[in-house]
């Protein structure tokens, strides 16, 4: 009599997460914790003729803050964002990466371009990080042109100016500005050996530029006060999500001009829904490669719920009478201005890949990169 042996083979069915594919228009079955990225704003958008910004005269920030329409929204934004930063700076180990027990080294670092997003995070973080600990500010710059030993870039000057403003507002805080200068030879080597594998399966020019910038920045190896320094921080704060939530991209101005507020509202929803596939997975893998945790205060559930409950003209005003880079993210600029970041509140929007000079403006960010 033959013996029949039943073999049971467990078939592994891969689970497709939203960030593991390059097509952004697919209807993925994403985990519950990411569902709120898929939700759209419920309110119907009409022309804001009752807004004080509808008047054809430019009001300065002090005057805008004196109006009830903005004062309440600015106060609420500061409240929710402060709570978000507090959670992300106080709930972490008391020892840095170098120490086994509680120490007074930096536990929190900030990806710091000096722009409005990172400047506001730095100011709020200083309220909650223990007073005897420094906060590390990570600023990355790439050699341009190649082999020139020139690391001057727009973000470097911006971060120096904003640092002076932070020192004035928080005179007792130790700020460690880490200048991370990356030679072209090192960029090519690390991109080929490590970074391209972390970015995969994303492979556009934009993914290449942002992935490399973030990998070197989160490594945290550079110079602080002229001496070699590597941040011991376990936590990295990032301004991810601020542009999508608060209307920071300059292209929103054209959308509003051509199609009106309803179309702008739909575009804000669309861009926000792309954050998991376009940013979160890639950026998290890149930062975790250095044993650091990326935390994103602007994507806190309470912050997101509050901001997306506002009409688009309550978040930004990308049209006359406000010029480019002032009307964009107007609500966030008013919050920074109210907290004392007077100069940073007026800084122009500058993408990381251009501010650090890793990107070539002649390339299209959506094209496939031949360097990965």
From TrEMBL:
The record's keywords, sorted A to Z, are: Amino-acid biosynthesis, Asparagine biosynthesis, Glutamine amidotransferase
- Which GO molecular-function terms appear in the entry? asparagine synthase (glutamine-hydrolyzing) activity
Q: Does the keyword Amino-acid biosynthesis apply?
A: yes
SUPFAM superfamilies this protein is in? Adenine nucleotide alpha hydrolases-like
What Gene3D superfamilies does the entry give? HUPs
Q: What is this protein called?
A: Asparagine synthetase domain-containing protein
UniProt organism field: Schizaphis graminum
Q: Does the keyword Iron-sulfur apply?
A: no
Q: What processes in GO biological process is this protein linked to?
A: asparagine biosynthetic process
Q: Where is the Asparagine synthetase domain?
A: 106-259
Origin, by domain of life? Answer: Eukaryota
């Amino acid at each position: 009599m033959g013996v029949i042996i039943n073999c049971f083979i467990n078939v592994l069915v891969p689970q497709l997460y939203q960030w593991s594919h390059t097509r952004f228009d697919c209807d993925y079955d994403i985990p519950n914790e990411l569902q709120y990225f898929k939700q759209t704003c419920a309110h119907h958008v009409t022309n804001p003729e009752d807004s004080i910004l509808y008047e054809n005269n430019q009001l300065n920030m002090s005057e805008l803050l004196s109006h009830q329409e903005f004062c309440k929204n600015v106060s609420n934004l500061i409240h929710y964002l402060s709570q978000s930063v507090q959670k992300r700076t106080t709930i972490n180990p008391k020892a840095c990466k170098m120490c086994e027990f509680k120490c007074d080294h930096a536990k929190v670092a900030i990806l710091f371009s000096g722009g409005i997003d990172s400047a506001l995070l730095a100011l709020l973080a200083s309220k909650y990080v223990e007073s005897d600990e420094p906060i590390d500010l990570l600023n990355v710059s790439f050699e341009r042109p190649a082999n020139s030993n020139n690391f001057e870039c727009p973000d470097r000057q911006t971060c120096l100016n904003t640092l002076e403003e932070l020192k004035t507002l928080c005179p007792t805080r130790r700020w460690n500005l880490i200048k991370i200068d990356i030679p072209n030879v090192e960029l090519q080597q690390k991109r080929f050996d490590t970074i391209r594998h972390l970015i995969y399966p994303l492979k556009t020019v934009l993914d290449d530029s942002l992935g490399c910038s973030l990998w070197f920045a989160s490594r945290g190896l550079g110079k602080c006060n002229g001496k070699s320094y590597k941040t011991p921080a376990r936590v990295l704060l990032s301004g991810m999500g601020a542009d999508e939530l608060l209307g920071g991209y300059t292209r929103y101005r054209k959308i509003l001009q051509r199609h009106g507020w309803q179309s702008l509202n739909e575009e804000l929803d669309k861009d926000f829904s792309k954050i998991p596939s376009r940013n979160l997975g890639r950026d998290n893998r890149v930062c975790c490669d250095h044993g650091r945790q990326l935390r994103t205060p602007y994507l806190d559930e309470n912050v997101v719920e509050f901001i997306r409950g506002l009409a688009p003209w309550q978040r930004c005003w990308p049209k006359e009478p406000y010029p480019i880079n002032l009307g964009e993210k107007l609500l966030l600029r008013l919050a920074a201005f109210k907290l004392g970041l007077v100069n940073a509140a007026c800084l122009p929007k500058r993408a990381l890949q251009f501010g650090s000079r890793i990107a070539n403006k002649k390339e299209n960010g959506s094209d496939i990169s031949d360097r990965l």
